Amino acid sequence: MQVIPSLDMGGAERTTIEMTEAIIAAGWRAIVVTQGGRLEEEIVKAGGELILLPVKSKNPLTLWRNSIRIRRLMQKHNVSLVHARSRAPAWSCYWAARALNVPFITTYHGAYGAQSRLKRWYNSSMVRGTRIIANSEFTKNLILQAHGETEPDLATRITVVFRGADMKRFSPPNKLGKKAIDQGLSHNFQMNNALTITQTTPKPFRLLLPARMTAWKGHEIVIKSLLILSRAGQWPNLRIVFLGGAHTLMGEDVAKDWFRDQEPEGVGALLHATPKMDEKMGPYEAHLRELVVKNGVSDLVHFVAHNNNIASALAWADGVLVPSTRPEAFGRVVVEAGAMAKPVIASNHGGARETIIDQKTGFLVTPNDAQALADAIHNLMEMDEEKRQKIGHAARDRVLNNFTTKTMCDQTIAIYKDVIKQYEAGRISRHV
Questions:
Q1: Residue 359 class from Cβ within 10 Å (0-12 exposed, 13-18 middle, 19+ buried)?
Q2: Strand order in the sheet with 205-210
Q3: pLDDT digits (tens, 9 = 90+) for 92-104
Q4: CB-based burial of residue 61 (10 Å sphere; 0-12 exposed, 13-18 middle, 19+ buried)?
Q5: Cα separation of 312 and 221, whole Å?
Q6: For residue 282, pLDDT beyond 90
Q7: Of 430, 429, 406, 354, residue with least CA distance to 100
């Protein structure tokens, strides 16, 4: 049983779906308990059994009630292991698993702040498992810093399992696929009165920043870097897409299968898809849009809502930006872009230090430094195509060797089997 607060877009959610497929492939039943979201259907398609509970709530009374509900579900479905992927549901899972004497493990998908003793206690639900999975060495070190003193055996219970990219989904397209991406994105931009960015002469240099609209993802730093480039006269034909806004310029259901099949009808699906417009816009996105207009770069920056066809957007780009102002615990975008053989410019902290070899598979820049980002963008634009491709291919090779979905799933399944085996043999402590 995997338990996750919601099933909207995100790395933890995508990992839950991938692990559901792996659990089924290993011959087990895969139960996912969640409050729900737009990826519910993906769990079912993967062969999982979806159960909706209010596990996103942090209300103490709801947490306790959820523990009773989860305990009953575990009994009903004869659950042999429960895997929590966030703090609030981890408490409910821990109480339920302890009551039934069933193995309980957790995965840290991000770093949790702990400014007070109460907050540290709340976070401690994630270190009460028989095994703790960290998505990077950076995350592992943060866990040890936060809880090492109170949990003396913690280091022996943590295993690093890097997130991965699906190498079938994220694979450089052939010429037909590339043409479909260009035409489809161009079509959808034109439909929304945005600048056509595939028919400009000379061809524009295209950068993608795929991230949800939140301040620490670095959108403002990108805008500041554009001003630096403009003052230096280094911005002609540069186009940047912020992928993750509220207003959809490319429908979520656009040509989900064209990328794998490379069939002509995939082109039609891209060209004729109707964008789904969302009237809701968060205050941060509104602020960014005002900033873009105020600074005179509205012809360079375009806002596109997050969609499930991220592979096509990555294929469209000449380079990818991950300018986070605070450390990413892992940073899945880096490996997905690498799998597509795209050079990445990322902030030099957090998980990016583990996924990128600077100057060889991508570029690391000083965090929150617009000048450093501007220099890196300019250097990438000035680089000849052969050198950019060499870096992209090196990035893909690195992902293939270290950061694939298959590797992640295989390692996690191995942890499941080991924990269950040792648990049944009584060789490991049952609960912390």
A1: exposed
A2: 301-305, 238-245, 205-210, 319-322, 344-347, 363-365
A3: 999 999 999 999 9
A4: exposed
A5: 25
A6: no
A7: 430
| Residues 152-159, mean pLDDT to the nearest whole number | 92
375 pLDDT exceeds 90? yes
Query: Is the CB of residue 268 less than 8 Å from the CB of residue 291?
Result: no
pLDDT value at position 160?
A: 97
Average pLDDT, the chain: 84
The SS3 of residue 252 is coil
For 2-35, letters b (16+ CB in 10 Å) and e give: bbbbbbebbbbbbbbbbbbbbbeeeeeebbbbbb
Which domains are present in the chain?
2-164+405-425 (3.40.50.2000), 175-402 (3.40.50.2000)
pLDDT value of residue 259: 25
Radius of gyration from C-alpha coordinates of the chain: 22
pLDDT confidence tier of residue 316, bands split at 50, 70 and 90? confident
* Residue 116 CB contacts under 8 Å (≥ 6 apart), including other chains: none
pLDDT (tens digit, 9 = 90+) per residue, 380-420?
999 999 999 999 999 999 999 999 999 999 999 999 999 99
Q: How far apart are CA 335 and CA 62, in angstroms?
A: 37
List alpha helices for 210-282, DSSP H: 219-231, 258-261, 264-272
d(CA 201, CA 197): 10
Which residues are bridge partners to 239 per DSSP?
206
Distance (Å, whole) CA 338 – CA 345: 11
Q: Order of strands, edge to edge, in the sheet holding 49-52?
A: 49-52, 31-34, 2-3, 82-84, 104-108, 131-134, 158-160
Strand pairing class (301-305; 319-322) = unpaired
pTM of the model: 0.82
Beta strands in 42-138 (DSSP E): 49-52, 82-84, 104-108, 131-134
User: In the chain, count of helices (H) and strands (E)?
Assistant: 18, 13
Specify the DSSP class assigned to residue 135.
S
The backbone torsions φ and ψ at residue 108, rounded to the nearest 5 degrees and listed phi first, read -85, 110
The CA distance from 120 to 144, in Å, is 12
pLDDT tens profile 97-146? 999 999 999 999 987 877 788 888 999 999 998 999 999 999 999 999 99
